[in-house]
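cron nightly-structures :: item 1 of 1
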Amino acid sequence: MCSRRPSCPSPDSLDLSGRDTAHIVAAHPEQGWYLLCDGAIVFDDTGALLPDGRVVAPHRVPVEQLGMAA
């Protein structure tokens, strides 16, 4: 799907940082999702839907690691 050179990583990439380098081809921030050139849809909560229908769970930070606002 991606015509960039070098091409985007496969949506099956186990390396999440590699998957995160795919180019955004359609942005819908008002709805909280983005379509990537590799066919994946990523969401604001860091979850994703891969082209084959598999789901990537959100990468949530444990509450203990969140900073406190003053």
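cron nightly-structures :: done
Residues 9 and 19 are 6 Å apart (CA to CA).
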